[in-house]
Specification:
homodimer; 563 residues; alpha+beta; five-stranded mixed barrel; two-stranded antiparallel ribbon; 19 helices; Acyl-CoA dehydrogenase (chains A, B); flavoprotein (chains A, B); AcylCo_DH/oxidase_C (chains A, B); FAD (chains A, B); flavin adenine dinucleotide binding (chains A, B)
Chain lengths: 563, 563
């Protein structure tokens, strides 16, 4: 079996659980069917195995370098990206009008997860390009689409998103990059952008930067932000005034350049209209947040599969009761504590993958309220718990897992970025409790969806899920009853923890119902992982909700000079 | 303030909480007093700051190399180790009879924590030497003490412990290294040893390996193990038949060489008597386990102090209720979620440090039953939760924390070893529930000690601690009622989680009582951290004990082929 992802699980999730074949009733997807879905899954797995996985460690050991004029990335990266583009995978979920395959998002996500699991750093160049192209396809003029989107979808150009600045990481209202209107309708962009993934390299003919900036005279705060296309090269082929000020050297994710970019009167082109920057950027950002969650799941998943394979091979020790020293040692998968780590990981990564694909299907069917409320959870939950699977994969390997001779330590380091970028998990918590549960009655929609699953399930876990979801609703109402955002949000991260675990329990109950009484090891595995999640994980939610219900304001009130 | 450790906290713990001055009533410590304790603490802090901290990152970037004949370590390591030895710190807690300062263990631990926090990798060479010397002082002949212990205490020799083998990591009963008795009373040692920290280098005149091996004809299992002194060099100065087969390349802790050693008919000298190897090795191992816990606390502690300093400096965002974009950004320590991370970390690292020093004092006063039952917790709890503090320190730093330009990512990578070595945390869990709670009625002694603190406390937290401790006793009795070790131990790690959190809550209640009504920021900080631990952390114990009480055998019974 592949140690990148479990194809059988993906097929269960797509066909037996989410019934993605039913999407072909939508005229957009009418050309498709299980055969085309399987073909793209096959293709993705093959390219991921042949072109992405083999250079994963080399990318980590030989990170990109900058000699003052150009950035050097190991050649395997460019080769892999060309294979990805040549297979039509950049535009897989894009409309036929721009040359895309028009695959449902849910299938596209399953395909892309192969690349994220095989080599998260190389896959990031593609992910940013796809997000950038999707944004411009939504908001760009036909000319901008021809000039930028088509070459990106063909793999000739790559894209970035330039939001953060050295003085403003999570706080976009403090963005100071300046845009000055020019006589020819273009804008002159000046400022410094930080943490720009894929921000510079020689992997593409040019790089399309999407830059959040403030037009001179625009209001303070996020309302004054506009979005600009700033290409690395001008139409003449000359360099635009965008220079690489330096590369960041990271703990992991090293194969993706991460740049400080200096815009010094660079030529930029407004996207649509001034003052729309933040709303437009969130089009890309929301997709990127799902992409981050998907990357976190993918890394956790491959870590789990490596740990499982190791635990089946490695012989050591004997069960406690049978400590006959002359008996042969057993595979460590026989030890309950190793099983605990593996089963926990399975419940995290398969639960996380279910959430990713479930959410992607919401995009396909246009259930935007549920999509909106789930987005912060999709980003944050896997970045915490599938990272935990990577931590457990190291532990299952013992000393070997701590060495760079085994891949699991890199998976951990790579995944450790995910709780940070595209809005830290703390930001996701504020977004969930401060905005999404209220917006369009998001929490009610979520709790209704969970309740519908629980109501139609005959599993003994259903009442436990229902009780937890209802309690989440009660606690949320109580938190907001006073109408005091500071108080309501004092324990937002704990709220996210609770909501996340309830959502994953929901994913497990729903998978369990899809598995039904089907026989075989695969289905038994699903049932055991569900049981683990309900018995060992869901109970964590109780104390979290207790704390929230108590209205504890310790974190709000404390005098931080005493720390 | 130092960002290595908080001296004020150490003084509180040593003098206001543990009253270490009272130890001077013991004739062994009669020469000492607060002045000498403070002087050694001062000295430790100075040497840690001047000689250990400055090369911490360089040790990580330029890890030891082996050119086939000798191992090269950056020169700062040798210089630091000489400064440590020249200050008399190797023998600080050793008796005057071998030139030691005869400091109480509890003071020695506080001193050594400075070195672990400043540079865990360099400090490891000293830690292993001290543990090795202590073992030989206990079990060696006067001649062995003169030949090996004295030069180690003078810093001329260093020491190792050689237990694991490639096929036997945690499972010592499978050790196959062979010892053949020679006519001259020595033994010829042949076998391969793995994961040997400080296993080879040129930092000392020679290296004293303590090797666990099986005398030809000895019984299988741990009963057949004996311990041998195998020096790297023979008295003639020639090399013994111990060769470096290779260095392991680790995720962190890179400055400490970690070796595979080949013993090929090497000359070894028996320690005391055959068949005593495991018991003797546990003398060193138990001390090493406390040392590992101490290292985990120290790394978490310095990570916390770095995060706190960063959070006070870094300006970003505004509190949710006051989102006036024209208001200046606030230091991120003002955000409740950042406070959550800092206060959680403070509760982990100060709680962990309290446990380390409390346990060290048990050595001084000879309370061995309590010491024995606490040892697995002292090793495992900090290696899980103070590692969590390092994880949170990265998160507080945001993107910066993920770069190698800031030290917190190294602290995390360094600390990630601690749940693995000297017996994985899973092994500690089996030791606690399978052995220590039963041995000499260990759990009763522990619960009595906790109850005594709770009974004499007027804090509102006291009844909650008492209830948790009593429930732990009830659950333990229930687990063992059937007398079936496999069933009792099926969820041993969950048991360790629960016991660990209860013990740290005890440390907090006890510190709280020591703080009393004292005024000032320092004491307010202690009160807030205690409140955090009782309100946000101790409640985790409920679901863990529920699971244990349910007698869940999922992990024991499962058919692992379905994973």
């Amino acid at each position: 079996m592949s140690m990148i992802l479990n194809r059988r699980d993906l097929e269960f999730l797509l066909y037996e659980w989410l019934d993605v074949e039913s999407l072909t009733a939508d005229p957009r997807f009418a050309e498709h069917g299980r055969e085309t879905f399987d073909a793209v899954l096959d293709l993705s797995q093959q390219i991921a195995e042949r072109e992405f996985a083999p250079h994963n460690r080399r990318s980590d050991l030989e990170e990109p370098t900058f000699d003052g004029s150009a950035v050097t990335v190991i050649p395997e990266v460019g080769k892999a990206l060309r294979a990805f583009a040549d297979a039509g995978l950049i535009s897989a979920t894009f409309p036929a009008s721009v040359g895309g395959m028009e695959l449902p998002q849910v299938v596209g996500r399953a395909c892309f997860a192969w690349f994220q699991a095989a080599n998260i750093a190389t896959s990031a160049y593609s992910m940013l390009t796809m997000g950038n192209a999707a944004l411009l396809l939504e908001y760009g003029t036909p000319e901008q689409i021809d000039t930028y989107v088509r070459p990106m979808l063909e793999g000739r150009y790559t894209g970035t998103m330039c939001l953060s600045e050295p003085q403003a990481g999570s706080s976009l209202s403090d963005v100071t990059t300046r845009a000055e209107r020019q006589d020819d309708g273009s804008y002159s962009i000046t400022g410094s952008k930080m943490w720009i993934s894929a921000g510079d390299h020689e992997l593409s003919e040019t790089i399309v930067h999407l830059v959040l900036a403030r037009v001179v005279g625009a209001p303070a705060g996020v309302k004054g932000l506009s979005l600009f296309i700033v290409p690395k090269h001008l139409p003449s082929g000359a360099r635009n005034n965008v220079t690489l000020a330096g590369l960041n050297h990271k703990m992991g994710f090293r194969g993706t350049t991460n740049a400080v970019l200096a815009f010094d009167g660079a030529t930029g082109h407004l996207v649509q209209a001034e003052g729309q920057g933040l709303a437009q950027m969130f089009h890309m950002m929301n997709e990127a947040r799902i992409g981050v969650g998907s990357g976190a799941v993918a890394l956790g998943y491959t870590g789990y599969l490596h740990a499982l394979a190791y635990a089946r091979e490695r012989l050591q020790g004997r069960p406690p009761a049978g400590k006959d020293p002359s008996a042969p040692p057993v595979p460590i998968v026989r030890h309950p504590d190793v099983r605990r780590m593996l089963l926990a990981s399975k419940s995290y990564v398969e639960g996380g993958m279910a959430l990713i694909l479930y959410t992607a299907k919401l995009v396909d069917v246009g259930e935007t309220v549920l999509l909106d409320v789930l987005t912060p959870i999709v980003k944050a939950w896997p970045s915490q718990w599938c990272l935990r699977a990577n931590d457990l994969a190291i532990q299952v390997h013992g000393g070997y897992g701590y060495t760079r001779e085994y891949p699991v330590e890199q998976f951990y380091r790579d995944n450790r970025l995910n709780p940070i970028h595209e809005g830290t998990d703390g930001i996701q918590a504020l977004d969930l409790l401060g905005r999404k549960v209220l917006l369009n009655d998001g929490l009610r929609v979520l709790v209704s969806a969970i309740s519908a699953t629980a109501d139609s399930s005959s599993s003994p876990y259903a009442p436990r899920l229902l009780a937890a979801a209802q309690r989440l609703a009660t606690v949320t109402a109580k938190l907001w009853a006073a109408g005091d955002p500071d108080k309501a949000l004092a324990n937002a991260s704990t709220y996210l923890d609770a909501a996340g675990h309830i959502v994953i329990a929901w994913m497990w109950l729903s998978q369990l119902d899809a598995a039904g009484d089907a026989e075989g090891a695969f289905y038994d595995g699903k049932r055991l992982a569900a049981r683990y999640f309900f018995d060992h994980e869901l109970p964590r939610v109780g104390p979290w909700l207790d704390l929230l219900e108590s209205g504890d304001t310790l974190l709000l009130d404390l005098d931080d000079t005493v720390l």
